[in-house]
Specification:
This protein is an alpha/beta fold. Helices cover 33% and strands 18% of the residues. The radius of gyration is 19 Å and the shape is globular.
């Protein structure tokens, strides 16, 4: 039976408090949420998504002030970013507090925290009182959902999967949050996202290092965000035309002049390519600036070798 789709926050609260899974809307993508203090509920997330259990989850909170409840210490960089960017599409990695479950962090000493900017989920979090662990509400490695319909199509037939979908409409940003590791000095952007890397660097007075080391946050895998059909990347409009001409029925994404619209539409278009059984997606890489960093990251990972 498909999950119930509703705007009723009371219904969502009832499911979460009973150990269930609720798909929640955020400004970035829909998340598959469980009570972050309930190990059994959190493990259901991994089962529903077929997600490796060593991949950490992000804990969503109602207010920036709650960061101190989930962090053993709050690094100065995390405090600056939280004050400037929350509520918003930013996740900070901080040293985890003693009560944070291993299943949430993948056994790591840090925990990812974010305060989303969506009115329905803000109300839900305020009334829930605690944290909600929530990765994207889709099968692991596949295209993230930006509407309630996407969630139902991805997880609606999964046994013991999502119990309820809180419908907040289309996600206005369309790509996931920026993840910044604040446990290192200088801080590192592990995943570009809705807060541009340039803004993060400016807030930290330029004290920002490139990501290095093994995967330690969501979305750091070589292949991710992938449709079923191949994704071919082009650096120029001429390259787009050449690659498209080599395909039987490609879906072309070549409007890089409006990065906000590009980000909003990206996952919708990747899904559309599969729905229409297109032979491939041919995508023009946007400039490496602003939201372009996040779009380029998603496209590179969507185009990567799926065996990796």
């Amino acid at each position: 039976m498909p999950p119930r789709v509703t705007t009723d926050v009371d219904a969502a609260l009832e499911v979460l408090r009973s150990g269930g899974l609720v798909a929640i809307p955020t400004e970035t993508v829909y998340g598959l949420a469980a009570d972050a203090s309930n190990e059994t509920a959190v493990r259901r997330i991994f089962a529903a998504k077929q997600r490796p259990v060593d991949h950490p989850l992000i804990v969503h909170l109602a207010r920036a002030e709650q960061l101190r409840d989930w962090a053993a210490t709050v690094p100065a960089s995390a405090a600056v970013l939280a004050a400037a960017c929350w509520p918003g599409p930013l996740t900070v990695l901080v040293p985890r507090a003693a009560h944070v479950l291993d299943v949430v962090t993948g056994g790591r000493p840090s925990v990812g925290i974010r305060v989303p900017a969506h009115p329905l989920t803000t109300e839900l979090l305020e009334r829930f009182g605690g944290g909600l662990a929530a990765p994207s509400a889709n099968r692991f490695g596949r295209v993230s959902p930006t509407t309630a319909e996407h969630v139902v199509r991805d997880l609606g037939d999964v046994p013991n999967g999502v119990d309820l979908v809180l419908d907040g409409g289309p996600c206005p940003v369309g790509v996931e949050s920026t993840i910044v590791d604040c446990t290192v000095e200088p801080a590192q952007v592990l995943r570009p996202g809705g807060i541009p890397t340039e803004q993060v660097a400016a807030l930290l007075n330029g004290a920002l290092a490139p990501a290095a080391g093994p995967s330690r946050a969501a979305g750091m895998q070589a292949s991710h965000y992938a449709p079923r059909c191949p994704v071919l990347l082009a650096d120029t409009p001429a390259d787009v035309a050449r690659l498209a001409a080599q395909q039987d029925d490609p879906l072309v994404i070549d409007d890089a002049d409006d990065l906000v619209r590009y980000a909003q539409q990206l996952y919708h278009l990747l899904r559309r390519a599969d729905d229409e059984h297109r032979s491939a997606v041919v995508a023009l890489m946007p400039p490496a600036a602003g939201l372009g960093h996040a779009i380029r990251d998603r496209l590179v990972k969507a185009a990567a070798d799926r065996a990796g």
